[in-house]
Amino acid sequence: MPFILSANRLRDGAVVYFAQDNSWSERIEDAAAVPEDRVGKLEEAGLDAEARNHVVGSYAIEVAASCPPYSTRLRERIRSHGPTVGDRQTRTAVEDHQSRPMGGPEG
Amino acid sequence: MYVYDSLDKTLLNQRVAEFRDQVQRRLDGDLTEDQFKPLRLMNGLYLQLHAYMLRVAIPYGTLSSDQMRKLAYVAKTYDRGYGHFTTRQNIQFNWIELSTAPDLLYDLSEVDLHAIQTSGNCIRNVTADPYAGAAADELDDPRIWSEVIRQWSTLHPEFSFLPRKFKIAVTGSEADRAAIKFHDIGLKIVRNNEGVLGFAVYVGGGQGRTPIVAPLIKAFLPAPDLLRYLDAVLRVYNRHGRRDNIYKARIKILVDSMGADSFAAEVASEFNRLDPKLLSVRDDDVSRLRDMFAQPYLRPDPDSSSSFEDLVKKSPRLGPWFKSNAHPHKTPGYSIVTISLKPIGGIPGDATAEQMFGIADLADRFSLGEIRVTYTQNLILPHVRQADLFVLWQELERLNLATPNVGLASDIIACPGLDYCSLANARSIPISQRISERFANLNAQHDVGPLDIRISGCINACGHHHAGHIGILGVDKKGEERYQLTLGGQGNGESAVGKIVGPGFDEDGIVDAVETVVSTYLSLRTEGEVFSQTLARTGQDPFKERLYDNR
Amino acid sequence: MTIVNASGDVVEQGWTTVESLEGYGPHHGIIVSPAVLLDSFDEADHVSLSHTGVRLSVEDDVSEIAAYVPHLGLIELVFAQFKDGRPYSTALTLRRDYKFTHELRASGDVLPDQAIFLIRSGFSSVDVPDQFTAQEFKKSLMAYSVAYQSAHDSHVSLIDDLRRSTPDVAAE
Prior knowledge:
The complex is a heterotrimer.
Chain A: E1 3-9, E2 15-18, E3 24-25, H1 39-51, E4 55-62, H2 74-81, H3 93-99
Chain B: H1 6-27, H2 33-41, E1 45-47, E2 52-56, E3 62-64, H3 65-78, E4 82-85, E5 91-96, H4 101-109, E6 127-128, H5 142-153, E7 168-171, E8 185-191, E9 197-203, E10 216-222, H6 226-240, H7 251-258, H8 260-273, H9 276-279, H10 283-293, H11 302-314, H12 318-325, E11 326-328, E12 334-339, E13 350-352, H13 353-366, E14 370-373, E15 379-385, H14 389-398, E16 413-414, H15 429-438, H16 442-448, E17 453-456, E18 470-477, E19 480-487, E20 499-500, H17 507-524, H18 531-538, H19 541-548
Parallel strand pairs in B: 6-7, 7-8, 16-17, 17-18
Antiparallel strand pairs in B: 1-2, 2-5, 3-14, 4-5, 4-13, 8-9, 9-10, 11-12, 12-15, 14-15, 18-19, 19-20
Chain C: E1 2-5, E2 10-11, E3 16-17, E4 30-32, H1 34-40, H2 46-50, E5 52-56, E6 74-79, H3 86-96, E7 103-108, H4 115-120, E8 125-128, H5 134-141, H6 158-164
Parallel strand pairs in C: 3-4, 4-5, 5-6, 6-7, 7-8
Antiparallel strand pairs in C: 1-2, 1-8
């Protein structure tokens, strides 16, 4: 299975992936996937970006050869797609109240 | 409340300026990540899965309405419109950028808020009974002593690079609402036979991988000796605590391996070497703090409570809320009101900016501008006149903050889990949401009675699962989320560590298992018996049978 | 090697670290290991000891050289890792329990951002690690003009110190 390289961007902590054009992208679709024998090179690119204070904590992730790359690890899927509970409380307090009157069944 | 003076403000401003400089040096590459990490952690800034997370200190869980408004402003301006109140009486913002964090901290400093020592291997933000100053059973206000500890521990030159984090909790009441025996140091305010004020000192409690209920190290410590004794405990720990294994570095391991008695002896010998003049807490300084925390006079208003009781009889939805979310105040005619941050199916401890602004206004109208944060991830308005309860309840309903479930099945404690946290092995929030929805019928919850469900997404136990009546621990088993079930923990009042019942469950299975445990209890309980009493009487066996026999 | 004092100013390095005494007589301003100190020095020879320093790792036990301590010209505490805060307690103990009044030096893995903690714990000089400058240590020492705790040897109560005066941060 191929590997991609991910890290968090130093200045805002955003999840980023090392792309084909040697840039770092927030989209996992852009991630450069390499075969296992080139993981070392990939990791070197990560360490280089860390040394240049662009990203922190880079590491290679094994992914299924699909588009976009798919990790079998839930942690990686949450990193790429955001919290499974939504990245914000989309319902405002007032909307929530209207859609589900409080007091529940006895109300 | 405590009012910052020029020294407090100067130090805070200098701290903000120092951190701004540290962030700039990091962005410029003058500091490596390795060097910067402990510095940002001591300012509460973590790097989590999706972004930086900032943990803001709420000293001993006390907030003014203006401070709450500032937190709401921060949520709107620097985050995605919400914050998460934690099991340490703090608030966390999940979507923070490193580059603007110094501006955020500057904004907080305008209302005397900060993130100092909310992380790192130092003395963390001290926690206390959220009913402080309002509880009828209080010997002395724990905030006075918490503030003494806050000052002593802030930027402590000797104790900022300890083997591991260090948490201190203080209660002034017999009913322990601060879980003091699950802390590195738990302080209970007591009086000795002569009526002298002091502390019972518990050292070496904690949760995590090795849950331990703290042993009593000193039955009576005169109040003026507080800092001298803490100094001695911390020095013994700094000297002898393990640094070779992060899982054995907490003081609980040191106390356990030395034995409570020899640990106490070592502390006593260090205490005796310390010059009593050096760290004694003076009476006049204590009375100055006491004046600051003294609440404005509340006129006893017994009529207010009787007229309110009439109203409860008339309004069927008000009754359950009053029963579960209001607690007697020391002044007749007043209540301590808990604002539930656990709407059915919601994220435990989350509050939107709109809700925070609304709570600040309600605190001004109904509670002398004061708000408390509980370690169970709810908020409190400590001084509400019972004549105002009906209007307050209506306003809280409008903000979706009046769920009548405090202390009940859907008042679940949950850590952020794998949805946010880089340490987590499994998700916590969705499990809590599904359990909450399973028990959505609030009448049924009131019938089940007091039930404390707690969920952690990893063994660090931020969700206090060891201390829940029903505890759930998320683990990673070959890439799959699995959930272990423990029963019999106690975190409110009593302290006990729960025991694992058997093999773990998957996501669906754990929700069913919790329901099975509750229905087993309902079938076993005798008249008036609450969950923890039934479990204590029957043991785990009948629960195990129901959980595993049909498999 | 750059040594800064408690004010962050660079001072002349008058001491040489040696592995053994070969080639060094007394009065040379040498820093030795505790083993060499115990083997080769007489605890009653206060004159020689005043020209001698000892270098302690985080694992070394001060009590083993207790008799020498008050007479030594210098004690150097080596930080194995900046995250390992044991030397802060050792410094306090040396100043308070052993009444050590001479130069107490921090060396090894220390950060400029820790300078204020070092000085307030009783250190009087810092051996600046190669990747940092004396200027960075001085700047860090200037970051705070106030503190909540009394410095290591001021005998006033915390709250008293705290509220009635502004302690001189750089003072010993």
